[in-house]
Specification:
Elements (H helix, E strand, L loop, with lengths): L22 H6 L19 H6 L6 H12 L7 H8 L6 H5 L6 H14 L5 H8 L4 H4 L26 E4 L2 H6 L1 H13 L4 E2 L9 H6 L2 H18 L3 E4 L2 H15 L6 E4 H10 L4 E2 L6 E5 L4 H5 L4 H9 L3 E3 L23 H17 L4 E4 L2 H14 L4 E4 H8 E2 L6
Parallel strand pairs: 1-2, 1-3, 3-4, 6-7, 6-8, 8-9
Antiparallel strand pairs: 5-10
Helix pairs in contact: 3-6, 10-19, 12-13, 14-16, 17-18
Bound molecules: iron/sulfur cluster (2 copies).
One iron/sulfur cluster (SF4) binds next to α3.
């Protein structure tokens, strides 16, 4: 069934196309295919959309060919093309592999902008954005009431107070993996950080960017930034790489200015303190063998590979076994790009392959550093009836950190 072709509210209808502005990059693709899959040779990271979709048109080279046909006027946008573009997990494996260092995801975002303006956002994603209790209304994609965003927080004195540091909670921590929010906040308490959280925090805007609705993302970002400015915030701590990437990488580009605060991931802070000997960890008992999954966003997008590994090395009783594909070559868990809304088979296939890879290490625990990866692996583990325990590193930190005043 053809979807309506009116543009979503908030995104201006243009007669020109965003993809045409990137012609120069599109023509640089030499169709070498390095972005398809050289992972069996250990040379490259693998594209989950390609391996889930099974046609080259799902992979970066295929989408560059489509983009070229678009700018050459040979084809036009339609639902089938939308399927190729919106099944991308934004894992950036293709950009990592590209010999010509092409900004592959910039092409995909431009295509999404054009598709969104033509009403071609896939059905379930569209409902999550605009439907009853959608992102537009409740400022999260979990259809949860906005008033319950801080339901996990017992320390009400932290809400909307002026402070130099803020904790940006993010939708997944706030609503569906609340332990991550609690563990992060309690760790900040133990470290003596005077922080604030917003009662009117909105989604960072990433689901809008992944849909191609950049004006909407700008509105979300401006809403939160203005509140931080009013409270005198100079540094914002994140536990979600996706939210951090939206503020650190996307916001300056979308808003055309520097942020008035420094965005940091809590793992970078903890790793620094551990390396400087400022904090210690209690031994894990009984001992555990863990394998660490590099979130695509924290890793390939933000370049944070060593901080979580440094933390794990500092926790007595934890030994680490690396997966065959790690750091910049890590395989995506399948949760990125919100593809589970409309393409759950592609998401699940990637998640299953990655969980099996984790099992191959012989580790008993899979450690993540992203709420989306955590959710994905917990669901996949249940589906496969795997014995692998899945925990986020914030849980390990909170349980094992050894500082005076910690409740036992
Ligand atoms: S970003 Fe990831 S999923 Fe998307 S085309 Fe590139 S490798 Fe494939
Ligand atoms: S690796 Fe780069 S140049 Fe080669 S086909 Fe892929 S996008 Fe094009």
């Amino acid at each position: 069934m053809r979807q309506e072709t009116t543009a979503p509210a908030g995104e201006a209808v243009r007669s020109s196309r965003h993809i045409d502005e990137l012609k120069a990059i599109i023509y640089q693709c030499n169709r070498c295919g390095q972005c398809l899959d050289f992972s069996t040779l250990g040379l490259a990271a693998k594209c989950p959309a390609y391996w889930g979709g099974l046609f080259e048109s799902y992979a970066s080279r295929g989408k560059f060919n489509i983009a070229r046909a678009l700018v050459d006027g040979l084809i036009d946008y339609d639902e089938e093309l939308a399927r190729r573009v919106y099944s991308c997990t934004e894992c950036r494996a293709c950009a990592e592999n590209c010999f010509k260092f092409l900004d592959t995801t910039a092409i995909f975002t431009a295509m999404k902008q054009d598709l969104a303006e033509r009403g071609l956002i896939p059905e379930n994603y569209r409902r999550a954005l605009y439907g009853e209790m959608g992102l537009d209304e409740v400022h999260n994609v979990y259809q949860a009431p906005h008033a319950e965003r801080l339901a996990w927080l017992s320390r009400r004195e932290r809400v909307d107070r002026p402070a130099r540091t803020a904790f940006f909670v993010g939708c997944t921590s706030a609503y569906v993996r609340q332990n991550m929010a609690i563990d992060t906040a309690e760790t900040l308490e133990l470290l003596g950080v005077d922080y604030t959280v917003l009662s009117d925090e909105w989604c960072c805007g990433h689901p809008y960017i992944a849909a191609g609705l950049l004006d909407k993302a700008r509105q979300s970002l401006e809403h939160t930034i203005a509140q931080y400015q009013r409270l005198g915030v100079e540094r914002v701590v994140f536990n979600c790489p996706g939210c951090l990437k939206t503020f650190k990488h996307d916001a300056p580009r979308l808003l055309g200015r520097r942020l008035p605060f420094e965005p940091v991931h809590i793992l970078e802070e903890i790793a620094r303190l551990a390396e400087e000997g400022e904090i210690r960890f209690l031994p894990v008992s009984p001992k555990i063998v863990v394998t660490y999954h590099d979130s695509c966003t924290l890793g390939r997008w933000l370049g944070v590979y060593e901080a979580p590994r440094q933390i794990l090395r500092h926790i007595p009783g934890v030994s680490v076994r690396e997966m065959r594909r790690n750091r910049n070559l890590a395989y995506c868990c399948g949760a990125g790009g919100l593809i589970r809304f409309d393409y759950p088979n592609i998401a699940t296939r990637a998640g299953e392959e990655r969980l099996r890879e984790a099992e191959e290490t012989g580790a008993d625990t899979l450690v993540t550093s992203c709420p989306a990866c955590l959710m994905q692996f917990q669901q996949i583990r249940n589906k496969l009836r795997s014995a692998m325990r899945v925990v986020d590193i914030t849980e390990l930190i909170w349980k094992q950190i050894d500082v005076p005043g910690k409740p036992q």
